[in-house]
């Protein structure tokens, strides 16, 4: 989900809230008779004859079906627009202009981070991904280590490594998530979140 969809969400939510408040207040004033006191010509009852006539027309089912299909298409687009964008191949860098764009490969940043983590002696395996999660850009690192690993020392080294990644990819939205897997020969790796 990108920022445009988020802004559209907020605008539509504000509009829907405003419409509900206005309709609710109008209905309350109308049922209490206050609306008739404030404005001339307010009817005592709502005339639904025109609506009943329209529903009785032979074209009504086709019009209702067309509106239903249109709403279904819009609803499907809306749901797809809210799916998280997991893979954006490149990231804009500060200093980009309309005529000159500076970009860096997200895969290159993730692969370099995983490679650097794998150079730590206690780390047996490391993988990293860089993806959007709503308004945030998340660098997700998964490392597998031995049970006897000095975890505070490892956390300090991983913190420095992630700080280096943030220097390479300066973005106010950048966050990191590190998952630690403890290697065991008797059972599958156990995962623990460390940052």
Structure, explained:
This protein is α+β, with helices and mostly antiparallel strands and 195 residues long. 49% of the residues lie in helices and 21% in strands. The chain is built from six helices and six strands. Strands 3-4-5-6 form a four-stranded mixed β-sheet. The chain has a two-stranded antiparallel sheet with strand order 1-2. Strand 3 (123-133) and strand 4 (136-145) form a beta hairpin. Helix 5 runs antiparallel to helix 6. The chain is elongated, with a radius of gyration of 29 Å. It starts with a helix and ends with a strand.
Give the SSE map.
Layout: H1 3-32, H2 34-38, H3 49-55, H4 60-81, E1 90-92, E2 103-105, H5 106-118, E3 123-133, E4 136-145, H6 151-168, E5 174-182, E6 190-193
List keywords for this structure.
alpha+beta, four-stranded mixed β-sheet, two-stranded antiparallel sheet, 6 helices, 6 strands, elongated
Average pLDDT works out at 83
Number of helices: 6
Number of strands: 6
Q: Describe the global form.
A: elongated
- Given helix and strand content, the structural type is alpha+beta
Distance between the termini: 24 Å
Strand ordering within the main sheet: 3-4-5-6
Q: Outline the biggest β-sheet.
A: 4 strands, mixed
Radius of gyration over C-alpha positions, nearest whole angstrom = 29 Å
The percentage of residues in β strands lies in 15-25%
Low-confidence stretches: none
């Amino acid at each position: 989900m990108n920022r445009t969809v988020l802004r559209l969400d907020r605008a539509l939510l504000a509009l829907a809230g405003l419409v509900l408040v206005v309709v609710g207040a109008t209905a309350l004033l109308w049922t209490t008779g206050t609306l008739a006191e404030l404005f001339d010509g307010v009817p005592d009852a709502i005339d639904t004859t025109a609506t009943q006539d329209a529903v009785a027309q032979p074209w009504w089912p086709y019009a209702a079906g067309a509106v239903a299909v249109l709403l279904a298409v819009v609803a499907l687009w809306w749901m797809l627009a809210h799916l998280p964008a997991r893979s954006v191949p490149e990231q804009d860098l500060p200093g980009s202009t309309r005529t000159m764009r500076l970009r860096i490969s997200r895969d290159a940043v993730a692969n370099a981070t995983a490679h650097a983590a794998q150079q730590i002696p206690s780390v047996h395996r490391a993988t990293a991904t860089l993806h959007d999660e709503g308004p945030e850009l998340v660098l997700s690192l998964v490392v597998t280590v031995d049970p006897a690993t000095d975890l505070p020392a490892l956390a300090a080294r991983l913190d420095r490594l992630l700080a280096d990644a943030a220097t390479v990819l300066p973005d106010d939205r950048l966050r990191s998530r590190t998952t630690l897997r403890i290697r065991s020969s008797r059972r599958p790796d156990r995962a623990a979140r460390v940052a």
